[in-house]
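Board notes (copied after class):
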Amino acid sequence: MSRRLLWLAHARRGAPPAPPSPTQQQPGPFDDAMMARALSLAAQAASLGEVPVGAVVYHSSTGGVLGEGFNRRETDHDPAAHAELLAIRQACLRIGDWRLNDYSLAVTLEPCVMCAGLIVNARIGRLVFGATDPKAGAAASLYRITEDARLNHRVTPIPGLMAPRSTALLRAFFSSLRTRGKA
């Protein structure tokens, strides 16, 4: 059966089509430094009692930072105050445009459904993330929203950059929450 017919068969049943075979992207020259910055931001989030996720938007060719953020849901009492949203919003305001085709996003944790949708809508050029999220990941684990051929923009993620450090930060945070909960 051709790919198109297979896609139509899935679409009629309401099931999503099989994800496209990804084209493997390679990390860029600024990705390590930007992920290190995102990890620093994630540590700031943890110090405020927020889930430790940090994000940085930077120019893919020059490495110039345009926006950054860390989770602030508890602090701001805002369910949408995710690191990615705050970094993307800051970057868009800084350049005076909502299109971020020439920019990369480094984030310590795989984006959720909301953030993956925002990444597509903001036309992010490159997505680099650290730890996968088997419970809410929407760029590789549960969904592949950023690569969905039915959408008007796609970005193939580069997963796993500094994943052990991202994972360790998240585990330490949730471990301390459990310990405090038992006390």
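Comment from the instructor: Helices lie at 3-13, 31-47, 73-76, 83-95, 113-121, 163-182. The first strand starts at residue 54 and ends at 59.
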